[in-house]
Amino acid sequence: MSKALALDSEYQGARKGADFLRHLEACPPELWYQGKRVENVRNFAPLKNGVATLAALYDYQWDHSVLMLETVDDRKVSRSFSITKDRSDLLAVGKALLTGAQFSQGMLGRDPAYLNRSIASFAGSADFFDIGGRTFSHNVKEYFRFVRDNDLALTHTILNPRANRRIGPAFQDDPTVSAHVTRETDAGIYITGARLVATLPFADEIAVFPARLLDVSDASKDYAFAFVLPTSTAGLKFICRDSVDYGMGPKNHPLGARYEEMDAVALFDNVFVPWERVFCYRDIDICNQFYDATGATAHITYQVVCKNIVKIEFFLGLISLMIRGSGLEGFQHIHEKMADVWAGWQAMKAFKSASEAGARLNDFGMLVPDWNPLEAARFMFPRLYPRIVEIVQQIGASGLVTLPTSEDLDGPLRAEIDKCFQSMRLEAADKIDLYRLAWDASVSAFAGRQVLYERFFFGDPVHMATRIFRNNPCSDLMDRVNGFIRAK
User: Fold this and answer.
1) Chain segment 110-120, per-residue pLDDT in tens
2) pTM above 0.90, yes or no
3) For 353, what's the count of Cα atoms within 13 Å in the CB-facing half-sphere?
4) Residue 9 pLDDT more than 80?
5) Domain match, 284 and 422 both
6) Which residues contribute to the annotated binding site for FAD?
7) Element (H, E) at 208
8) 287-329 per-position pLDDT tens digit
9) What does the entry list as the binding residues for FAD (predicted)?
10) Is residue 300 packed enough to be buried (19+ CB in 10 Å), middle (13-18) or exposed (0-12)?
11) Which range marks the domain in which residue 270 is found?
């Protein structure tokens, strides 16, 4: 095996949390936070709880191994790497993805399973990577085995920073801002510039995938590539945003203190990429087809729909507890709000089932979920999710504003708190626990980041609508209506 596809201490198959932490300590990425380099990523206060959560997710998969793991070559591996060949494979993957999402109540948008589905799609459609004349299929298959057999976590980036959003990176006033090739050698290529947005920058590896819709010109070829690297690669830095973990602990901040996955800008400073780590190079046509032709878009969207089903289930449970605790079940506007969330839940489950029922083999022999239901799901959810959060805010009202902390409950005013903060069916301490969760799901910095994340998870919703409009001309339906008009 190439040194580029090896670990100093390999662990074969599905790993445990301790394996992830050991590798992070041995090969930490260069993270920058509020102007300073993070010296100890594992124990850095704004990130340590998110790091611990990711480690716990690896232990969780062993606790749910019947659904989340499968045996390949006499070793247990994550089922999220499955290359689906028939519907039973897809259904098994779906059960694993739902189970994995339940670990975080759907709050981890970059559960490693998300990018695992991409890498599996590329490997299952590896011949695609030879279409442009260069033979990268071997790289794709070897990397898939490397990541699956070591159960690595990936972050990724697919966006170029552009001051002028109407033109591509090659035509900006400063074309060196976006990550681009500066040199090519027999051993590999060198990359300099920035890429957006790397969520989970403390992952093991980063996948730098093509930015969509590159213009077809020689000037843009230096920006047309896909490659994968360890996040600890020399010359690679990550600038992190403010943490949404306030440091208040899970009692006060039940979501933010657990599920801070962090977002960062990736900066490449003359970073060397070995050829065996390259998936495509200077081929704009391949870059523009990269996701759809391989089935990766459908498979990662399928994972997201599973995650979103679980996320809505969490909110249904939360809202139901708020209604019951405050005795609000007699109000009709409450019924309508609950029905809005319930209908969205049913829609997401129906989209998932429809995508499974309509799954077809692609040109490379990999079973891919039907795209149309998934496209509908990813168009609907960014509109549904802010409404769900708004419903929590409307039901919680001022009760989400004046919440004591666990320190208050342990302080000298406990008797007054017990008297003032009780609800119809909840003692004060129980109501405070419930409403702190509702606050963290709807009001806090964590909640705000979740709303923004879901709004733009798949990019500009207007561009998404344009894609749907262009790809669905409804010609047959127009003919049917015209036939009705003309019938006598």
Assistant:
1) 999 999 999 99
2) yes
3) 6
4) no
5) no
6) 156-158, 199
7) strand 205-208
8) 999 999 999 999 999 999 999 999 999 999 999 999 999 999 9
9) 156-158, 199
10) buried
11) 3-289
The sign of the CA dihedral 257, 263, 267, 271 is positive
Average pLDDT, the chain: 95
Distance between CA atoms of 355 and 358, rounded to whole angstroms? 5
Residues 382, 443 within the same domain:
yes
Strand, helix or coil for residue 170: helix
Verify that 254 and 175 share a domain, yes or no.
yes
Kindly state whether residues 316 and 394 are assigned to the same domain: yes
Give the CATH number for residue 284: 2.40.110.10
Distance in angstroms (rounded) separating the CA atoms of residues 233 and 230: 5
Asked whether residue 82 falls in the same domain as residue 185, the answer is: yes
Binding residues: 156-158, 199
398 and 426, same domain (yes or no) = yes
User: Which pLDDT score, from 0 to 100, does residue 213 have?
Assistant: 61
Final residue belonging to a domain, choices 268, 289, 310:
289
Same domain assignment for residues 366 and 235:
no
Structure tokens of 380?
């609907």
Q: What number of CA atoms fall less than 13 Å from residue 440's CA on the CB side?
A: 27
- State the angle between helix axes of 296-326 and 371-396 in degrees (0 to 180), rounded to the nearest 10: 20
Distance CA 10, CA 12 (A): 6
Domain count, the chain: 2
Contacts of 64-69 with C-beta under 8 Å, sequence gap 24+, read 64/99, 64/100, 65/14, 67/92, 67/95, 67/96, 67/99, 68/96, 68/99, 68/100, 69/14
The gap between the terminal CA atoms of the chain, to the nearest Å, is 73
* Rounded-to-integer distance, Cα 377 and Cα 372, Å: 9
- Do 49 and 173 share a domain, yes or no? yes
Q: For the ranges 8-12, 30-34, 194-198, 402-406, which has the lowest average pLDDT?
A: 8-12
Which residues are CB-neighbours of 188 under 8 A, at least 6 positions away? 272, 273, 274, 275, 277, 278
Domain boundary among 237, 270, 289: 289
Rg (the chain; Cα; Å): 24
CATH number for the domain that contains residue 480? 1.20.140.10
Q: What whole-number percentage of the chain has pLDDT above 90?
A: 89
